[in-house]
Fold:
Amino acid sequence: MLFTDLGLSAPLLRAIKEEGYTVPTPIQAKSIPAVLKGGDLLAAAQTGTGKTAGFTLPILQRLSSSAKPGAGKHLLRVLILTPTRELAAQVQESVLTYGKYTGLKSAVIFGGVGANPQIKAIQAGLDILVATPGRLLDLMSQKCVSLEAIEILVLDEADRMLDMGFLRDIKKILAALPKKRQNLLFSATFSAEIKALADGLLNSPALIEVARSNSANEAIAQLIHPVDRAKKHPLLAHLISSNGWKQVLVFTRTKHGANKLVTQLEKDGITCMAIHGNKSQSARTKALADFKDGKITALVATDIAARGIDIDQLPHVVNYDLPNISEDYVHRIGRTGRAGSNGVAVSLVCVDEHQMLRDIEKLIKQKLPQEVIPGFEPDPNAVAQPIQLRSQQPHQSRKPKAVSGTATASAKSRTDKPTAKRSSPPKRSFGR
Structure:
């Protein structure tokens, strides 16, 4: 199947062709026709499968092919909600890339930066708004945005929105939408919480699942390196140097751990930067850009900051710390092996994390291979110690904090803070 077989308009096909793509990914091949039909959709797709284009393309098609009330006026008809700033920016990039010949207008809003430029963009007239829940509710409370004409609602990475405690915010937003609309819910997993949300939101939805729920991408080679906790940093430096890795995304459990690891790796002569919630938006953007451009070898990230990172053909992901939430393992390693390319996911596991590893293997329903690296053999008599998670509750720590960015943040402006907490050559397919 080719994109030309999906009933997309000439302007969209032109934009797709200019990006060098002709073959849709499985989620795109299934979701594009479903969205074009106008019904609700519940889709489960692993990160990196191309789901963003799976909904942006048919949405652009529907808007450009239907008449807008109010001649010559852009009317806000589509709302796309995402859990993080990085993912919101990625979705907006997709809208701009594939909608550049449609004449449709879009904008992205999120917390951590000044609201005035975002308000001006909304007031100038939009067809599509990409938003994080917190900033959207902030502007709604100021009566700066109206959702009364919304025709299509997208909840992207809905599982992560629930995990971050955005359920109450989502319900407030839903209450402001027209009852008659098309709803599209995309999630990496079909958890019980997601099914409950879908039952209350969707009307006889089409169901799409392109991979087994909670499974890891088969294009990703997964490997466990047992190691003592004190030797994790030397082992990581050894792996990067001895294997000649040029681009590796490293996950730590905490922001402090990310900063400490960056300092250690820099002493080893490995160029690296950290990306987490305490970094300003501009610093996070620069770190990601330098990583994509190959200016730094290692990008050290926490889970919340890494959500939405979309890097074509990222070869290596390392779990320096295993996540305390098993589902995050699938999200983390999904940064590699994207859009049909192969990837390697390595986890450095000390005795403290053995239960976490068992939980992950139970979730993904497979036993992960282990390899002890000579010179880094773990002490067989080592005793597990309680893992210091975060000073806050695990889910509380997921809320993005106010950061400075391209515009001055208002001291009174609300950031994307959850109001409730719970205890992304010819005939090649693409992944955006």
In short: The radius of gyration is 22 Å. Residues 81 and 335 are 21 Å apart (CA to CA). The chain has 15 helices and 13 strands.
